[in-house]
Amino acid sequence: MTCPASGADTIYLGGLPAGLCGSGFTYNGATQDWFGYNDGTSEAGAQVASQQPGGCDNTQSCAYHTSGSGYTSYGAGAGITLNSNAVFDASQYTGLNVYLRGFTTGTRGPGFSQTNNTVHVKFITGAASDAATDPRDGDDYGGYCPIDGSDAGSCYTLCQLPLSALTRDGFRSTDAGVTDPTVDMFDPQNLVKVQFEFSLYSEPDGGVPEPVSFDVWIDGISWYK
């Protein structure tokens, strides 16, 4: 993969030293606080998540790699904290870049339809008094990133997510205590973490969807202005 654009504020670049990317590159090594999560339904074994070699154009790259299969509730994902679970103000930025490669099956795109080889990137906000909470109860602002759907030998796909274009899926109703998505506003000043989720799709007839499976490398996460 290539280095983020000159002048970008980089959250994660696989443990590479800052000097590798040359002038204009800002590397924040304090934000590499990864975590994994899943819906607990898989009978195919535990979700695997670790930092390991995953370079394509750059063989020195050490990407965050996560894989799993058999998830039938909402799916699974991996995430990174932005300020040790304290609030991070991203209002100075236009959006987020991330490089992804690998594959997913049983995942959704906009409108809950099955869209394999898709990663749901979610931006989690929290109040300053309790920054680890998720006020939208999983129905968070985000966007859908396509990946190439090939095996480990494939190169990365860049996904660019403008903050102004983030949306909520709207599956949590106001009866559940979540703000109505028609009046809710995304607050970039109140970010806590970014999650890369392999979200289960919905069958139009209410049938049982294909379980979520994934094998994905995540690298080159950076803000852009």
What would you say this structure looks like, in words?
This protein is mainly β and 225 residues long. The protein has a domain at 73-171 and 180-225: Jelly Rolls, CATH 2.60.120. The protein has no helices and twelve strands. The model has no long low-confidence stretch (mean pLDDT 82).
Write the layout of secondary structure elements.
Elements (H helix, E strand, L loop, with lengths): L8 E4 L13 E2 L5 E6 L9 E6 L8 E10 L3 E7 L13 E11 L12 E8 L15 E6 L10 E6 L28 E9 L12 E13 L1
Parallel strand pairs: 1-2
Antiparallel strand pairs: 1-12, 3-6, 4-5, 5-12, 6-11, 7-10, 7-12, 8-9, 8-11
Helix content: under 10%
Secondary-structure-derived class = mainly beta
* CATH architecture annotation of the domain at 73-171 and 180-225: Sandwich
The global form is globular
Q: Could you name the CATH class of the domain at 73-171 and 180-225?
A: Mainly Beta
Tell me the distance between the termini. Answer: 21 Å
Instruction: Please provide the count of β strands.
Output: 12
Beta-strand proportion: 35-45%
Instruction: Describe the sheet with the most strands.
Output: 7 strands, mixed
Q: Give the averaged pLDDT, no decimals.
A: 82
Order of helices and strands: EEEEEEEEEEEE
Unreliably modeled segments: none
Here the CATH topology of the domain at 73-171 and 180-225 equals: Jelly Rolls
What integer value in Å does the Rg equal? Answer: 17 Å
Number of helices: 0
